[in-house]
Amino acid sequence: MLRYRQVVSSCQQANRQFHSVLSLRQLSSAPSSIDSTTIANTPLSATSAVSNQVPLFFNNPRNKSNLGTSFSGSSSSSAFALRNDPFTNSQSLVASKMTEQRDIMQLWSLLEACLQTNNFPRSFSILKSLYEIKSHRKQNFIEDYNLYLDARAQNMTNIRQLEKLLEDDLTLFFPLVNYNDKSLAILIHHAIRLVPDLDKLRSHIKTYFKMGNDNYKGIVSYLDILTVSDYKRLYFELKMISDKDIPYSIREVAITVDSNENVVPESLNNSSLLATSSDATGKTLFDEEIKSLSKDVTQLRDVDTIGMKVVKHTLLGLTLNDVQRDQLSNFITPEMQTTTDQSANIDFYQIYKQLKTSKQKQDFELMLNEFNQERQRALELRATDAAKERWKHDFEEAKARGDISIQKSLNAKLWEWYTDMLPLVKEEIAHVHDKQLLKNTDFANYLKLVNPEKMCVITILELLKLNSTGGIMEGMRTARAVISVGKAIEMEFRSEQLLKTESRIFKEVNKKSNEFKKYIRNAKNAFRSMKIERSKIVWPQAVRARIGSVLISKLIKVAKVRVEGTDPVTKEVIVGKAPAFSHSYQYHNGVKLGIIKIHKSLVNQLNGERLAASVQPQLLPMLVKPRAWRNWKSGGYFYSQSLLVRAKDCPEQLAYLEAASNSNAIDKVYDGLNVLGNTAWTVNRKVFDVVSQVWNSGKDFLDIPGIQDKVELIPRPANSADPGEINLWKQRNREMVNKYSANRSMRCDSNYKLEIARAFLGEKFYFPHNLDFRGRAYPLSPHFNHLGNDMSRGLLVFWKGKRLGPEGLKWLKIHLSNLFGVDKVPLDERVAFTESNLDKIRDSAEHPLDGEGWWKQADEPWQALATCFELNEALKLETPEDYFSHQPVHQDGTCNGLQHYAALGGDIEGAQQVNLLPGPKPNDVYLHVANVVKRRLQKILETKDDPVAKFFVEKLNRKIVKQTVMTHVYGVTMVGATLQIDKQIGSYFENKKDSLFYSQYLAKHVFAAIKESFHGAHLIQNWLGECCKRISKSVRLDVDQNSFKNGNKPDFMTSIIWTTPLGLPIVQPYREIQKKQVQTNLQTVYISDPFAVNQINARRQKAGFPPNFIHSLDASHMLLSASKCAEDGLDFASVHDSYWTHACDVEIMSKNLREQFIKLHEVDLIERLKEEFDERYKNYVQVVKVPRSNPIVQEILTLREELSQKLGRPAKLSDEIYMERTRQRLLNSEDPEKVEEGKTMTTTISVTMGNEEALENLDNLSSRNNGGANIFVPLRLPAIPPKDNFDVHDVKDSIYFFS
Q1: Three-class SS string for 434-463?
Q2: What confidence tier does 1042 reach under pLDDT thresholds 50, 70, 90?
Q3: Does residue 775 contact residue 1063 with C-beta atoms inside 8 Å?
């Protein structure tokens, strides 16, 4: 193999002729891509062995134009390659594989940290460790070395130094690794930087191109190495590449003439990159100073918790520069002029609504999108700086007013904490290197990655945010706190790194003309997406815990609060300081927990002081459309990474997800999520004003608890009181404390929502979404979104308005009727309900708090009020149909889970009850179940006097059973159902025990009534549970023999995995929990290991599978409907099985919902699922216990005795697996003699394989008696229950399917 120096020399001796051909591909070829039959060594990787299991519903993932056709295709490829599945082998083997992945990840993160701190000796040592891992060396090591090479090159002044470094390292230390195209790109980048002479520079670059076997296109493709300036020099000055060689995403930026006028090529005038307009200044908005933009609304009175205390600036709101104000003035009429005052608020929504023409609105939105691009960037990147600036500002103001003002201002106090904490953190960083040498730890490298100022602010914000979490009142769990702080520091580091790289790549391209800005912005967006998609490193949990504990301990040391007390003797008031936070232990649910408590005086201090929500910008709505989902780990926010699926500590799910994404099997999922994220929203100012007024009163109102400073407990009875009386006293006081805690939590949650809503008043914003492991969509911004409570939903309206028209006016009236619970009558009766209450609607809209208050009687009062506002405005017009409505109108499914079950089982009676069949009016499934229960209870009373049955015959209604019926199909347990019913009937009883007894009694009858009413659904539910039970107790035939404890007890590692109709693989994450111990300077904490793959939890797997499967179907239906509605030009939002759009578009959406449900279920999904299971688990065996008297068992026992004699010891189950594996290997041999030998072998497993009759009666064979024997039988799933005659195409004519 030619060495690096020989290559350079030969190229120079060839008189630098660029066209000379050198056979150097063996040196320059990049490492081969991941073998399709192996698992990659990164925790976020998967192989085609995994992906083979994915596309069962979409057998040709690149041709998915017709969903029905895709369903009906046959599965042509194996569902899964046994020997390569890394998660279902023995626990010891899986642990070994995952330990290697954990080691690689830890070395990766440490290498990154050392390179960032210029600790090159330690970095090189880490490279040597990575090189010793053979599997990693072959696949990814050169990428690790390239990171090191690029970092070392930053401080070099001579290109020859860099060339020699590369040659020596690969020759002397890493001889089995070759450089790749990225290595050569690094050389080119630094040669451009270090070689001033053009001829010499051209010579070097020609050499590097030849080292790449003249594959210069591959070399110049590395956007994260070559800067825009590099591309310009290669293209204009050196003329060594063509414009086609420059990556498309930055091509326009690179080839634009570099002059003050910046002539944009004619070919770009109609480019698709003209997605946004740009700033009209020569100075970039990135450089503008960020200032807070106030909101001209009533200040909100604060909840007494510090969980939201931070800075309004962090939430939102940037002022506009002069050029932006000039642009905005073009859209402002004289009556709107005040909204553009320098000191006043800018309500973009009101400006938008008052524009007359569609062209004006379109131009305004283009301008607003330009503004918001810069504001979103600042929002994500400047949160900690903004918090610090606000604290300092408030401290200076308080200081000017005197010491008392400082004590009263919490922001001022936070500034004091910050200034006292900062020197301690700096001191810790300065001395941590010495500690590192003494303790032989690499912790120091991580602590230096983020500047101490930011770490102090992040620590304070995180602890404030975590107050009263994890079941700890006025405190938090230590483990959660240290991990949260550590993770927040890591997130800040990632954002800083992305920004730093972006700035380096696009250096010196900001000084451009106005027209040119759009190309820069889009190029940067593409670059960020690329970098985030390639991100693979996460910090170890132990590192997060140690960083968090160090920072929290410093805060605990300096954070003080002012306390005062009265001397009991002198009666003097004594003032002092006490720790604001303290570390201690307490028992929670019988477990001793380390906790961090917050001083009560600090909590009490918040009374009367306004809070600005302590919400990280990554948890807020976005001001611009989210980054589109095109990759499983790249979508949503601009400067932080979000995964498509929220898979907590489940590497198995991530492996399947990556495989599905890489095979393009989940493009439909991406499409649906992008539709949800692209829906624009704004805050309903009218509803907000009412909520603010109610909030500031501090009184109970609807679902908003009033302010309660402390719990007024019932006095303790005398010690001589009856024990029953004392127990009742304890119970009632406990209930009062729990209610106080719950109300406090609810008020705090409401404050979060209101503060965010206040910050977004007049703004256009979006909710980025991702999925849970079942495929259900959730907004990434958790505190304020349309999935929240009634108040949250009432506060939201669509940004875009649409003319009502006759149909829209009708649906707006129907919507109001639905919100009042009048939703089980025909549509015309719902319209009549609204029209009969027009005076009350008008009164509610014009006098919401000082009128009759009719709107408060609604089931969803805040949404009803919003609709009253909308209807009232429409009815003021001479032609109400001309009103442009922004109000979302909902279409809700009738117990959507039962709808899917009825379709799966072809259950005609069930389909009728849940409105899958056409009818003159909607059926009420909850009333139906209540009536069935009542009939059952009446039969009981006919035979005996039962006071409980009598009670429910008199009191039972649909509301009591509704929640239990709704959640039954989603796996609610008897305990859960009991508590649900207790919430409805608890007010009838003084004694909690009596209430729970009655509730449990009714829950049993509700379960029985559902089983009776939905027999087909019950059969499917049982079939799913039985499948799960058998799969969970199965093992692979080729399982490692270490899988058996003592040779007889196998490790059960098989999760339930299935593929949704949209190609999304679902992996149930229910495995036994394993935590590891990490020593920190606060306490020893126990944290979960994200790389651990333990035995499955069979009970949770079985309980979870039926509801999770149904969830995956309703999620698929929602995403399909979202995509179709977007195709038809509708704004679309979803709350699981409640779908929202404009009133005028409800008919179109309803049609789409029916069509997509039919398309989903016209394929027999249960048959599909069984085919997938049969393929996925075809070589699995199941352990069953059967009576020894059974003939099969007798034959197996005889074979065991023979095997024991051959082995000279008692045969074990692991031996039986080995013998069967040997038989299978012989049968699959190409040697005819070995095949014959295999045919003559009889094993304990092969005996059951040939006995179909016995397998059919497997359920009857199973026994739990002690006299049974454990045997292996082939995993055989039960037969699918017979399907009834319901035709899903009838849904097309059911107007009440969703209504």
Answers
A1: HHHHHHCCCHHHHHCCCCHHHHHHHHHHHH
A2: low
A3: no
Whether the CB-CB separation of 464 and 748 falls below 8 Å is answered with: no
Q: Which of 1081, 934, 1104 is nearest to 1008 (CA)?
A: 934
Specify the DSSP element, H or E, that contains 885. strand 884-885
Instruction: Confirm if 418 and 401 have CB atoms less than 8 A apart.
Output: no
Q: How many Cβ atoms from other residues are within 10 Å of residue 770's Cβ? A: 20
Most confident of 424-438, 925-939, 1041-1055, 1080-1094: 925-939
**3-state SS class at 37:** coil
Residue 613 pLDDT class (50, 70, 90 cuts) = very low
Residues classed as catalytic: 892, 962, 1137
Q: Is 300 exposed, middle or buried (0-12, 13-18, 19+ CB in 10 A)?
A: buried
Dist. CA 203–CA 12, nearest whole Å: 8
As given in the structure block, the two tokens for residue 607 are: 């009374």
Give a three-class secondary structure readout of 649-683.
CCHHHHHHHHHHHHCCCCHHHHHHHHHHHCCCEEE
Whether the per-residue pLDDT at 900 is higher than 50: the answer is yes
- What is the number of H-type helices and E-type strands within the chain? 53, 25
DSSP symbol at 622: B
CB 427 within 8 A of CB 557: no
Q: Strand, coil or helix: what is 404?
A: helix
Closest CA to 1109 of 775, 771, 777: 775
- 672 or 431, which is more confident: 672
Rounded CA-CA distance 834/810 in Å is 10
Q: Which helix (H) or strand (E) holds 771?
A: strand 769-771
Per-residue confidence (pLDDT) for residue 42, from 0 to 100: 30
**Phi first, then psi: what are they for 1057, rounded to 5°?**
-130, 135
- Residue 970's φ and ψ, nearest 5 degrees, are -105, 20
Spell out the residues 6+ positions from residue 1252 whose beta carbon is closer than 8 angstroms to its own. Answer: none
d(CA 188, CA 455): 36
| Residue 854 pLDDT | 95
Rounded to whole angstroms, the Cα distance separating 503 from 436 reads 33
Quote the pTM value: 0.77
Which one-letter amino acid corresponds to residue 384? T
CB 1141 within 8 A of CB 889: yes
Q: Are 275 and 266 in contact (CB under 8 A)?
A: no
For residue 132, what are the CA distances in angstroms to 30, 107, 505? 19, 12, 33
**Per-residue buried b or exposed e for 644-658, using 16+ beta carbons within 10 Å of the residue's own CB:** bbebebbbbbbbbbb
CA torsion through residues 633, 635, 640, 642, sign: negative
- Region 884-908: what's the mean pLDDT? 91
Distance CA 167, CA 161 (A): 10
> Whole-angstrom Cα distance, residue 527 to residue 515?
20
Examine the pLDDT at 880 and tell me if it is beyond 90.
Answer: yes
Averaged pLDDT of the chain = 78
Task: Tell me how far apart the alpha carbons of residues 75 and 849 are, in angstroms, rounded to a whole number.
Answer: 62
Q: Is the pLDDT of residue 90 over 70?
A: no
State residue 1298 phi and psi, 5-degree precision: -125, 120
680-697: pLDDT as tens digits: 999 999 999 999 999 888
At 316, which amino acid appears?
L
Identify the residue whose tokens are 């990554």: 618
